[in-house]
Amino acid sequence: MKNKNLLIIFFVLISQISIAQSWKYSRHELQFGLGASNFLGDLGGADAIGTHGIKDFRFSMTRPTIMMGYKYMVTPAFSLKGSIITSYLSGDDATTQETARQNRNLSFRSGIIEFGATAELYPWTEKTNHSYKVRGVWGSKSITLSPYFVMGVGLTLFQPKTKYNGDWVKLQPLGTEGQGLAGWPDKYKRYTMRFPVGIGVKYLIDRNWSIGFELSARYTLTDYIDDVSTSYYIPSEIEAANGTLAMTLADRALNPSLGTTGVTQFADGSNNYFQRGNPNYNDAYTFAIFSVHYRLRKGTKFIPKF
To answer: Residue ranges of the alpha helices (H) in 244-295?
Structure first.
């Protein structure tokens, strides 16, 4: 009996050593995910002056997201991932009850493509094999959940549009805030660096397959994903430079008499440019993604696990 127990202990120890080292044979992982996005910017949001923060989250503005990624495990506690994500972002002043924002009456949608690199930090290391609790010889599997933190950097391409007379109109070429006119900034670029932070959790199904859920926020270096940032500009000058459509879409106030939109021109030649957006906060957005992962393993035979 004593020899039998020693033999069991020996095989269990050898098995655990094999499990501890097996991550080196499974560093590579392919991922595919589906989820949802939500925009945090100037348009829509809370029933108060917006801050581009989580209080501006509106469930009605949630849009679909698709993710594909490749991950490389540097150590059991640290991994690097490259990903491509395509999604839509959307915002609409009709979703808020704040008077000035609602009267502004602007809306947008933008398809986006993300190219990113992220680091995943696993406080208790990532599980690559099931661990076992010994009961007799055969044992039983324990639950293998791996929570982690995410941060990274990447590039986002965007194209803000608004719906007018049944058609989706590209906004960046129109210079709706006077961009490109004399003395005003150039038209904004349709790409931006973005910096994600978030949390996630993975559940190991077997040696190759796992599923996960990740919640993250993306902070960008632009305030123009929704085409809104600073102030209104003189309508006649926008029309002269970019056409009547540009002038119309620059100021779509429901009630211009409220005096919260447009430009007031004084007899002395000075102008009062009313606020159109808030340039103190860059745009942000969030992702919630469910994913399936397939781990690529080197061709090697592991010592049987008990």
So the answer is: 244-250
Q: What pLDDT, in 10s, does the model give residues 221-276?
A: 999 999 999 999 999 999 999 999 999 999 999 999 988 899 999 999 899 999 99
> What is the distance between the terminal CA atoms of the chain, rounded to a whole angstrom?
19
CA atoms 279, 109, 61, 84: torsion sign: negative
Q: Which long-range contacts (CB under 8 A, 24 or more apart) does 91-94 make?
A: 91/39, 91/41, 91/42, 91/43, 91/44, 91/45, 91/61, 91/226, 92/43, 92/44, 92/61, 93/43, 93/44, 94/44
Query: Which strand (E) or helix (H) includes residue 13?
Result: helix 2-21
Cα 26 to Cα 35: distance, rounded to the nearest angstrom: 26
Closest CA to 178 of 228, 237, 227: 237
Which residue's entry shows tokens 């910017």?
41
Residues 6+ apart with CB under 8 A from 194: 114, 116, 153, 154, 155, 156, 218, 219, 220, 221
CA dihedral sign of residues 279, 244, 91, 161:
negative
Query: What's the rounded mean pLDDT across residues 107-115?
Result: 98
Q: 3-state DSSP call for residue 30?
A: strand
Q: What is the reported pLDDT for 7?
A: 46
Q: What is the mean pLDDT of residues 85-95?
A: 95
Judge whether 215 and 199 are in contact, CB under 8 Å: yes
